[in-house]
Amino acid sequence: MVVVILPQLKSGGTEWQTIQLLKGLATSRSCIAWIYDGSAMNTSLLAALRAIGNVEVVLGGAAALPNILKRRPKLIISYAINFYLWEVALKLLSGARLITERRNQYHWFVKERRNCAQECVRNLLTARVICNSRTVALRAAEVERFIGDKICVVPNALGIRPPEGMSDRGRVISVGNIKAGKGASQVLLAFEGIAAEPVASGVTFELFGRMDDPGVLSSVSPDAVAAFYKGERDRHGIFEGAICILHLSEAEGFPNAVLEAMAHGAVPVLSDIEVHRELFSAAAIYVSDARGARDVIEHLLAERAANPGKFEARRRKARELALGFSESRRVTAYEEIIADCLH
Fold it and tell me: For the packed helices 327-342 and 13-25, what is the interaxial angle rounded to 10 degrees?
């Protein structure tokens, strides 16, 4: 029995990746998906979890612990960052091996770290720490105690099965929840600057994401927000026909939306941060601000009109790189780590 812990079930890349992983792990073993906090539950994700054979969904913190202990778990895989208590209790009471995950750099900025004593206890009890990029692994090892020799890097998998070919609907998109550090205001400023140019005729500019903090858009005109922000949408369908994705996040663990857009043939225009360079290399174009993003996208749109063969080659390069992040490769990596832990 494997217990996979998620503090919440919202519409983020972490949750989608965990569901995908559970599908793979549950083919050979029984699993429990333990979700502490049922508030703001994403109903689509919950339905997807419950549709997986061999996976039981358990909701609630302390109240659920006795029920899980009865199942006599052998392994715990936890993304319970800053929610250490129940994960540590399950580990100590069950004797199961504990694997913890790090998927986002924000948690390792020292000013944002909390519960440091509990964190140290959890890290001492952890058998392996799985990071989804070398960038996150280096940052975690730099500021967290007792994990340096336990780290394994397993990249995320492509979360949406793309179509066989690439369609061109003249869509330039950005995908990311509206909150500090995600670059949403810079994206909208870039879109606002491009949309009125002749080269953008027939092209749509769309920003998708959950509105977590409206204040981050205070520097953008209400007209731009109304024109380009499309709210939160189901991930299936938002990438179809996209020719470019703009992603200006200040820090990332693994930008799933970029990978998914690339798999549909979107050329990535990205903030120049370590994790983007690590994962996407020469398939992406890197910029430092909204003005740089505007200039690059204008150039790409001009190239699409004047030299479609070159532009399509860019799209194929992005797509080929994205398709290399396979679900089976990720599940196999986890299976090897699990086998090593339980040996």
Answer: 70
- Give 270's strand partners: 247, 286
Point out the residues of the chain with pLDDT beneath 50: none
Cα→Cα distances 254→5, 106, 249, 325, Å: 19, 12, 11, 12
Same domain, 250 and 271: yes
Q: Number of structural domains, the chain?
A: 2
| Full-model pTM | 0.87
Domain range holding 201?
A: 171-323
- Nearest CA to 232 among 176, 299, 288, 307? 176
Domain assignment present for 51: yes
Same domain, 203 and 316: yes
Does residue 161 fall inside a structural domain?
A: no
Q: Where are the alpha helices (DSSP H) in 26-157?
A: 43-50, 65-70, 84-94, 116-125, 134-143
pLDDT tens for 85-98 read: 888 999 999 999 99
